[in-house]
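Worked Example 4.2. Consider the chain below.
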Amino acid sequence: MLVDVLRCPGCERGSLRADRAGYICSQCSAGFPVIGGAAWLFRDPRGAAGEWRARLTLMLAELQADAAGTRAALAAPDLLPATRARLERLAAALEDHGQRVARLLEPLQVHLGAADRDTLRALRTRMPVSQGLTNYYVNIHRDWAWGEAENAASLDLLDTAGTEPLAGARVLVLGAGAGRLAYDLHRRHAPALTVAMDLNPLLLAVAREMFAGRRLELYEFPLAPRGAADHAVLRSLAAPAPADERLQLVAGDAMCAPFQPGAFDVVVTPWFVDIVEEPFPALATRINALVADGGRWLNLGSVAFAFMATQRALQFSLDEVLGIVEGAGFTRPVLREAVVPYMQSPASRHARLESTVAWTARKVASVAPPASRGPPEWIVDARLPVPVTADLQAHARATRIHAFLMSLVDGRRSLADIAQVLVEQRLMKPEDALPATRAFMLRMQEDAGRRINV
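Applying the procedure from the previous section yields the following structure tokens:
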């Protein structure tokens, strides 16, 4: 049962017991709800729900604005008939898509109109910056609409590295996304328990519907549509068959995983280790803590730490990665590599082949993980004072300068006028003020029109 592997992500000591509203910690009595069919096991569950709720509200506002802008473009006098038809189709799809996503994520209890779009943009939340509701949206369609060849290739590659059956095992899939790999592993190998965990409630909501055997319709918006009709394609998503009750969903953060130490015989990390915003050596020890003695770590993905571009020392090569895995208490990984299809949507001209790595490594020693990463107490407890840190002070100064500059934009002042004010206020030297003002205003103009990550 799921409850047997759970640990309180708050105090990190108590076990969790099931309750009518969700789960309760045996030590600190903290409560954790079930939202949208997934146990909501963040360290601060209310705060996490609030952050995702804000992101969803902003996403819906952005979709409405996008649809309105698309409809406004229809007023252009010399549109080609094909262009008009494409814009009308896209505007209708954007409006319908917002309604479908809102229904799918109804358990988050979004209240449309609670804040205007500008306020939501200003206050947009900062879950891990690489994670947002729409970051891996295309994966939904790959998993459950058109990606059978890709899904099968990934499963087969992982199996060639895994070498041993999973029957009767307890399996955790970290970063499970919309759940297809967890689903396929569970159906093929019949573990005693498979837990699919992810941060993203949209991906988890899709997985919930698929695991239950329900059909779902959502739009795909390819980046490089093949034709006019491919700018918005209403896809039918469905699993081959319902999953059994031993496949469970958990909403949680791998940096504060809500599981007992050594709770799993196998931990699977699909396309995960190189997108997590934590250095790989620390992450490897976190995974060690979740694996039982003699258990295994199965990994699948490209193992390309591109997001660490500003930290060259953390852009590990595959040889370095294998050594780090050994240093984290595992045997030298058994490695398999293959070129597999990746994101080959039939509606998109963007498609590629990915050189993909799979490995299995057995735990031979326990290694202490770093302290769990989570929000500071003054974030969790809204009654505590906000500390005056050097970083916050520096950011406040920059924000005040930004606000001051934007307040000078009144429809009458030129860039030269604004730059002169900076000189008069002794904020900049005369020779630097105009170039800096021009660069700042250009960035503000670009940011205002950029679709932000939600």
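Residues 2-38 form one domain. Residues 45-73 form the longest helix (29 residues). Compare this with Example 4.1 before moving on.
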